[in-house]
Known about the structure:
This protein is of the alpha/beta class. The chain is built from five helices and five strands; from the N terminus they run βααβββαβαα. It has a single domain (10-114), classed as Rossmann fold. The strands form two sheets. It has a three-stranded parallel beta sheet with strand order 1-2-5. A two-stranded antiparallel ribbon has the order 3-4.
Amino acid sequence: MQKLPIGRKNFLMVSTRQIVSEFMQSGYEVLENYSRGKLYNYSRTPKNYCFDDLGSEAASKYYGNDCNVMAEILLTRYDIFKEKGIISHLTTNLTAGEIEAIYGNRLRSRMREMFNLFGYDEGSGDKRR
């Protein structure tokens, strides 16, 4: 995804591990920043993001409160997708079953509508080069 030509790349690439790390330091405002973008984006239009390596992030807590950070962000971005057509992208090595186990059936069903799937055969070479 990072190798797309600049003219075709209209999104910011951000690691899910980085987002969770920011959440553990700064709290729930991080959810708002990556889902609706209101805190740091003065135009109030959500940014297009590519959430890199979904499933690599650790479970997170903020002052003892458990939160599945990426599930919350993606569920909110689904609502924005339905309301405004704002697109999100993501990369993952997880299977559909693993996504459901980690993030739940609710998010998995919304992901079917929200994303186009590009799959690779298990024997294919690494695409990160």
